[in-house]
Structure to design on (536 residues):
DNA sequence: GGAATAGTGTCTCTGAGACACTATCCT
DNA sequence: AGGATAGTGTCTCAGAGACACTATTCC
């Protein structure tokens, strides 16, 4: 943004050939809750490098395209859905030389939180896309470098540096729902308290007390408000009150503190 | 990172001429505490666009240079100092088309927290650099668009979108010292409790109770440990115990909660 | 001794965690 | 009636906020 310093290798005047050209992409970490578990959308690569490996959806940023716009466009192309209730924010940028063996690529990663989305529709770019349960993928550093292992012990290789990006994204999501109202981004427009609680439990991998959770939601302004009407019938048990999210993303006072030493949930 | 989708404008195979080229820069928001106030380092632009306006230090990323390395290099070139005790982390990336009128530039912003640094040394790239007290600059949206006004009412125009970047950086710094041990990054290797407390007060603009602050530091593991010896003599009053930071940046349990409705400090 | 700063103790109240019983719907 | 889920009340304890006095140094 400033005049380049001499050691930057570019003289005053911005000779277009004087500074190194970069390719810029956006990569998406798209999360949703399915079956009470945190899932992420990955696409299988059809070409080298990393042919057959699973990668975050993404693509090049257009010459006159805003980063944020590019992220929304890629999301639409990969999932076939406009983001209506969900949330999209920038995660961080990855630009190590050699992270793509072919050329220098700067990748701006985005975090997407969405209500339960359908399976990717065939016939689009997302032919080879599918949802993965995050806790079916081993955490980086624990097993086999950056590769991951699924529940059956099969290796789930992630392309490029995407395992690290994914780990960062999970951390960010877990932190975000703690002190903002973003947990509601995982819910449909109307939701029950249990559904909201399942979001926290899925992202954090912890169990929460139902009664204390209710008390916290009720005393926390800006998170959720009850609406007239109850859960659609058909299920057993007493129908639950429906809630809707407040407009916009707000910081929570008090925050929903993650249990410090709660037991990890085991779900399979 | 993935094979570009057709609508991205780049075919399979990465024809280098097929995707749009970007210039990539790093911009630094370098903060320190001077005279118990949060300061940021800005450089005055010597050429158009925005000639004479104040800008964040920064420059182009080299063709084979890591983003993190580029940020460290720019810091060294602009301040003449290696970062020994301070902290450097990525803030976020700004890439709106038109944010630089000359060309498409993607700027990866970094947040730097450092102990009181000397004035920029003349004779380097930092000829026109100086420290600004952050609260002498009006917050964006309050006064005159993205320009800022200093304590005397003079306009302090910031170049490009740097006013917004700076506001984001202040928010990040305020949040970071709340739940991590990063407040110590503003202190010298040895520091007193009062000096550490002044960091929180300067960044947050609030007053804290001296006794409760001491209790919190003592019961918070991973923040600071007392060392043998006391404050160098020469000052009035009882000499204070010296502390040093624990190694590395850790999350704090419990966090240092920002006062919700504390009075804002007025210092001038 | 006086000024200035560092260090310590106590009270109170809010809020989180643990926990058991009642209410409402379905078949 | 019985099963299943939703909704409510209470006790306890830890931690944050407010606050006043003592200790050590320099002049």
């Amino acid at each position: 943004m400033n005049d380049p310093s001499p050691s930057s290798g570019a003289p005053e005047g911005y000779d277009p050939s004087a500074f190194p050209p970069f390719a810029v992409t956006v990569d998406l970490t798209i999360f949703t809750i399915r079956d009470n578990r945190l899932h992420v959308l990955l696409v299988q690569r059809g070409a080298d490098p990393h042919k057959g490996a699973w990668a975050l959806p993404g693509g090049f940023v257009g010459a006159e395209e805003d980063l944020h716009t590019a992220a929304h466009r890629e999301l639409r192309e990969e999932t076939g859905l406009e983001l209506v209730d969900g949330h999209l924010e920038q995660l961080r940028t990855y630009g190590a030389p050699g992270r793509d063996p072919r050329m220098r690529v700067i990748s701006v990663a985005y975090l997407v939180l969405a209500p339960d989305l359908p399976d990717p529709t065939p016939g689009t770019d997302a032919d080879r896309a599918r949802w993965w349960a995050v806790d079916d993928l081993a955490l980086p550093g624990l097993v086999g470098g950056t590769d991951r292992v699924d529940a059956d012990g099969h290796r789930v290789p992630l392309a490029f540096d995407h395992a690290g990006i994914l780990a960062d994204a999970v951390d960010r999501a877990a932190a975000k729902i703690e002190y903002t109202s973003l947990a509601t981004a995982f819910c449909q427009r109307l939701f029950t308290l249990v559904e909201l609680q399942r979001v926290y439990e899925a992202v954090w991998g912890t169990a929460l007390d139902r009664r204390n959770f209710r008390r916290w939601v009720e005393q926390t302004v800006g998170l959720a408000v009850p609406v007239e009407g109850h859960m659609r019938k058909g299920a057993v048990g007493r129908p639950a009150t429906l809630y809707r999210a407040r407009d916009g993303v707000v910081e929570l006072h008090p925050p929903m503190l993650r249990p410090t030493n709660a037991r990890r949930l085991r779900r399979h």
Observations:
- Chain A touches chain B through 62 residues (CB under 8 Å).
